[in-house]
Amino acid sequence: MTYQLLDQPCRNFNILGIERITDPKDHREKVVLSNFAAGATGNLILLDPSTGEGESLALPGDSGAWALLNLHDRQLLAGTCPDFGYLHALDLARREWLPALRDEHETYIWNLVLGADGMVYGGTYPGCVLLRYDPARHVLENLGRVSSNAGDLYSRTVYGGLPGHLLITCGYSQPGLWLWEIASGVARPFGKPGATVKEINPRFICTELNGQLDFYDAATFEPLQVDLSIRLAPSQPAPRLAGSGASIQLSGERRLRVRGQEYYVEAMQEPGTLPRLNPIPTPRPPTRIHSLVADPQGRIWGSSSFGQTIFRYDPSTGDVWNSQVVCNSGGEVYGMGFARGRLFLSAYAGGDHIVYDPRAEWNQVENQNPRTLAPVGPELVRPAARSVIGPDGHFWTGWWARYGQYGGGLSRVDVNTLEVASWNDPVPGQGLTGLASDARYLYFITGGQANGLPEKVEPFHFVVWSPSEGVVWQYAFTAGTRLYSIAASPERVLMSMDGELRVFNPQTFAFERVISLEQPCHQLTTWGEDFAAFCGKKLWRVNPRNGERAFLGELPGEVGAATVIPTGILYFSTNSSLYRWI
Q1: Does residue 322 lie within any of the structural domains?
Q2: What is the CA radius of gyration of the chain?
């Protein structure tokens, strides 16, 4: 037995950054889109908004870039993520990259701004530091941490336009603003804790907290005891299409906006008219598969690791279909499940629930198909435990809490009425990391991971949940034990922890067997009456009734998702590739 490579069926764009240039090659106005290709190398797309033509340039490294900065139409800077935090510099006239720069401890550069001293500054994750780039010498320096709170991992946004200073947003343990003096390299808290920047101009700084505006002198940084609301710049008009993301002002009173896999140009139009959506004019790259599920017809459905799209692969024909964005919030789909002929989805980062009917015409723009249902955000935002069809036939999802908060929750979508119910913190202060279901119960495991916070260590839980009663049984493991994945067959539940599998019997409410393995299994999938256990680059078939395990073979990489179609054939993904076990 071995595996067969089928395709790279997941293809999409995820535009993180946008910048405008006058291209020195042809002197035309162009928009630069920074595309994040999950599991691959990202690229820049130089789009001519007048002709609709596009040019793609691969980044020298990393999956994508939030940060883009045009340096006088001579150089284009890109600050990358999520693995290396490179500073890439492109010579626009020659279309050549300078040698990549990075700080070895940082993996994200969030944005880049030009300081008053001619240097370029950027904020990072996970060190919450300030980086400085010298364009003349092509040198990148780490200037040290911004926030004094060790729990703040993000120097998320750096603002320039201030004499001798930078204003920096930090979080998420104690979100707030820090004022950095360029000459001394000293930072101090600025404004009210938790406030955000609304506007910076030559006269004042305006911050906002819970709808309250505060004003500070832009030269002395002292509070101003006057309401300058009437002096604020007019707000940009809301985009005509909900779900629009990155945008930039063009010449001639036009604005280009990106909406998922498409873009449009807004001009001064009559109210109520909708602009035309255009496809981004370069091929969608293959991207990492995040989730997989099989429908009753044996077709494989999956989601992208970033970019809020789904795909379908038909094993009988090899046909592939990729969607537009499934909802208006950015992020990605984690949970997928079929019920009553429809595909139910759960998505980060808005805590969204979505339902899609493959038999009907696609019309997400008007929220008809797919349709976004009631969210559980902002309290719950990341469906890290994925989703299952529960014993009651409804769509259940396990979540982590909002950024800057430990905890999690469960949600249920009634597949008949589409009503949403939720339960916050079934295990106080712990996020749900895995979810499974049989004919009677739901089962979930918890962990110490959180959005924007360091991972904590404490006793984590295995929980049995009844749709009608809530928690009916739970077990706390010793602090330091990490729980990795969970799956349920009709008779047993299998859970992966450090170096072993635990078999739980729902009839006796007891762990009845321990199966030793060389390493944790990050992916477990029910396979008939047995389980497929993906442990590193190895596949095991596990019989939970007698504890026997059979090593089936080496895999091409670590498995990110797996599913079994109704005929019993196992499919799995590594990065962007889909495989069948034969």
Answers
A1: yes
A2: 25
Q: Which tens digit of pLDDT belongs to each residue from 523-552?
A: 999 999 999 999 999 999 999 999 999 999
376-396 tens-digit pLDDT = 999 999 999 999 999 999 999
pLDDT band at 270 (very low <50, low <70, confident <90, very high): low
User: Does some domain include residue 117?
Assistant: no
Q: Residue type for 134, please?
A: D
Residue type, 84: F
Is a pLDDT exceeding 70 seen at residue 271? no
| 183 burial type by CB count under 10 A (0-12 exposed, 13-18 middle, 19+ buried) | exposed
- The answer on pLDDT for 187 being more than 90 is yes
Q: Which domain holds residue 295?
A: 289-581
Task: Give the CA distances from residue 453 to residues 83, 127, 336, in Å, rounded to whole numbers and listed in that order.
Answer: 18, 12, 27
C-alpha angle 481/487/488, rounded to 5°?
125
User: Domain containing 551 — which CATH number?
Assistant: 2.130.10.10
**528's torsion region: left (phi>0), alpha (psi -120 to 50) or beta?**
left
Whole-model pTM: value is 0.94
Regarding predicted confidence, which is higher, 280 or 237?
Answer: 280
Task: Give Cβ neighbours of residue 94 (< 8 Å, ≥ 6 apart).
Answer: none
For residue 25, tell me if it sits in a domain.
no
Structural domain total, the chain: 1
Dist. CA 211–CA 258, nearest whole Å = 28
User: Tokens 């006793």 belong to which residue?
Assistant: 459
CB 290 within 8 A of CB 575: no
For 144, residues 6+ apart whose C-beta sits below 8 A from its C-beta are 129, 130, 185
548 part of a folded domain: yes
- Which residues have CB under 8 Å from 175's CB, separation 6+? 152, 169, 193, 194, 404
Q: How many angstroms separate the CA atoms of 113 and 518, rounded?
A: 48
Tell me how far apart the alpha carbons of residues 126 and 141 are, in angstroms, rounded to a whole number: 16
Going by their DSSP bridges, the two strands 176-181 and 186-190 should be labelled as antiparallel
